[in-house]
Design a protein that fits this description.
- By secondary structure, the protein is an all-beta fold.
- It is built from no helices and 21 strands.
- Strands 1, 2, 5, 7, 9, 10, 12, 13, 15, 16, 18, 19 and 21 form a 13-stranded mixed β-sheet that branches.
- 44% of the residues are buried.
Length: 187
């Protein structure tokens, strides 16, 4: 048998956030991840955010395990600073992320200033009421998973590169399905 993974913190949304573990700060329905490590997130909130800001640019892995997070004033998941961020869809999980509002700078439901890798054997539905579904200033790498993205602008947009190594993507983009300002690689 495979040993159960140990997480640095377990985060549960339920209008406010409850946290068990380390390197996480909760304020109302916003959770801040402050250091590298492995985190698992579950639960639902109508106006919350996962905010990643590691001062020393460490690797962060966040497992989404049946989340339903909507954010009215910016990205539902915001990677401000991390060396590498991995979003993992827990096996068999069904996850929903959405945004609204008018944030012209951080303009994705999932927005990252750094390289973002998404993988796992779950389902993720993204509903962008602001602009893009997934946006990164660096790279977006999709390894596996099932995605449905509804966006006003691009479904997935990256400044440097988009790589799709696997998974199933269904994108309803107002302007583009996939848009890279650099390169794109679909394997």
């Amino acid at each position: 048998t495979v040993p159960e993974k140990k997480f640095d913190a377990e985060i549960v949304f339920n209008e406010t956030v409850s946290v068990k573990g380390k390197n996480v700060e909760a304020s109302g329905s916003v959770v801040k991840i402050l250091a590298g490590g492995d985190y698992i997130v579950s639960g639902a909130t109508s106006n919350g955010q996962i905010y990643i800001n590691t001062v020393t640019e460490e690797k962060v892995e966040i497992t989404l395990d049946n989340v339903d997070i909507s954010c009215g004033g910016g990205p539902a998941t915001f990677v401000n600073e991390a060396k590498r961020c991995v979003l993992k869809l827990a096996e068999g999980s069904v996850n929903y992320l959405s945004d609204d509002g008018n944030d012209k700078i951080n303009d994705g439901v999932i927005f990252s200033n750094d390289t973002l890798r998404i993988k796992g054997d779950g389902y993720l539905e993204i509903n962008a009421g602001n602009a893009h579904g997934i946006a990164s200033d660096d790279d977006v790498i999709i390894e596996s998973g099932e995605y449905v993205i509804n966006s006003i602008k691009s479904g997935i947009i990256a400044n440097d590169n988009i790589t799709v190594n696997g998974g199933e993507l269904t994108i309803f983009g107002g302007t583009n399905g996939l848009k890279s300002k650099g390169t794109m690689c679909i394997n």
